[in-house]
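Please produce the structure of this protein holding phosphoenolpyruvate.
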Amino acid sequence: MLIVMKSDATDSQVEAVLRVIEQLGFRGHPMPGATRTAIGVTGNQGAVDPSHFENLAGVAEAIRVSKPYKLITLDLRPEKTVVRVGGDATIGGDELAIIAGPCAIESRAQAFAVAEAVRRSGARFFRGGAYKPRTSPYAFQGLGEEGLRILADVRDAYGLKIVTEALDEAGVDLVEKYGDMIQIGARNMQNFSLLRRAGKARLPVLLKRGLSATLDEWLLAAEYVMAEGNYQIVLCERGIRTFTDHTRNTMDLAVIPAVRRISHLPVIVDPSHGTGKNFMVTPLARAGVAVGADGLIIEVHDQPEHALSDGAQALTLDQYEELVREVRSIHEVITPAAVG
Ligand code: PEP
Ligand code: MN
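Below is the modeled complex.
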């Protein structure tokens, strides 16, 4: 059920509708918009009778939702969500969001060398894994909490917002302690207990698309997070597995306009994991911006040849700086109106 309030509905009328939703044993999710507030209702097993709401003061319409998602949808919120990270940085607004850094935090020296270049480029966000989801249990798994401490020091030194992955629910506690944004990785996109925990977190969530997830499965994963009350989610296309073997993954650029047509959530692209190859990262970053992504997440290393993970796709500091220059000029000509 979706309850659309009249444009002149008062806060107390919205509160009264929320109380009725609660009395019925459901949860109300108010979404204030530019012209009106809508309230999504979750927690109901079957259909909810619209007559519970239709005659309440301030209610314009109570609409049954036939789609599988209730909260990520433009029906609830016609304007794009602008996600706030670390107080003063945003994703989904007018500025192109650039999240850059190494795949994994390997040492303080490495993290600071990369962060220096990221800061210089004007990017607002620093990435780096302290807990790495590696295919082999014998591969470098990340520095753990020590990695998070280094990330927190990077924030203090450079003012960059920290985006880092939580592999499990305990990891969310730690990212809440040290970071600014919780990354949920492709392999965990349907880890429903992790999604629910992220939904209760006080930090925004970067939700990567699963390796073989359809658009609906991905959006429903975001719906899990939102249903718990965390509405600050950024989607990330990071390539899906296909039959081709000239890339690590196939970056599905068509998913950007497909998301836009359904959801108010910002969506960014990851041409690093999306291609797996250094020489493809910049061309696909350009394409991602041209197709209307709200931002990029890019792996950068001061010494890619010595990287402990994902060295083949890491950009050098110089390559990264050039990429930022190029995508900024593309973004300038792609106005939000043209992207629509
Ligand atoms: C990463 O960002 O380093 C990562 C592991 O990404 P993904 O979950 O998309 O593979
Ligand atoms: Mn990586």
